[in-house]
């Protein structure tokens, strides 16, 4: 697959994500050891399970896979994730539980890095949201 970052760009992605306001780096609760979890300093507990990759544990709205993979898993409102999938930025998570879990491809250049960072910010904002139920998904 060509949707992977170079090691240098992956390093920029990781550094940029942990420069986002309120993010804290940690070990993912559900992904291999090479992955970096994005935790939120002000949100220790999820507000709703569909906003976290680790429902029932510490809020983990995003994790970044290691340098050999460079993709990200994150949670987004299902409509937004479906839109990003249709635009070719990623695909539904293979182990989704709520229809809010998506895999986003690693950025391949500086402009894609900016887009991926904005998607990460959307996921963080979704994790901080106070919705009590996942957004409705239209039946196909």
Structure report:
By secondary structure, this protein is α+β, with helices and mostly antiparallel strands. It has a single domain (7-128), classed as Alpha-Beta Complex (Aspartate Aminotransferase, domain 1), CATH 3.90.1150. Helices cover 28% and strands 17% of the residues. The protein has helices at 7-17, 78-86, 110-128; strands at residues 23-27, 36-40, 62-64, 72-75, 90-92, 101-104. It has a 6-stranded antiparallel beta sheet, with helices on one face. It is globular.
Give the SSE map.
Layout (H helix, E strand, L loop, with lengths): L6 H11 L5 E5 L8 E5 L21 E3 L7 E4 L2 H9 L3 E3 L8 E4 L5 H19 L12
Antiparallel strand pairs: 1-2, 2-3, 3-4, 4-6, 5-6
Short summary of the structure?
By secondary structure, the chain is α+β, with helices and mostly antiparallel strands. Helices cover 28% and strands 17% of the residues.
Biggest beta sheet summary? 6 strands, antiparallel
Counting structural domains, the number is 1
Low-confidence stretches: none
pLDDT averaged over residues = 92
Number of strands: 6
**Beta-strand content:** 15-25%
At CATH level 2, the architecture is Alpha-Beta Complex
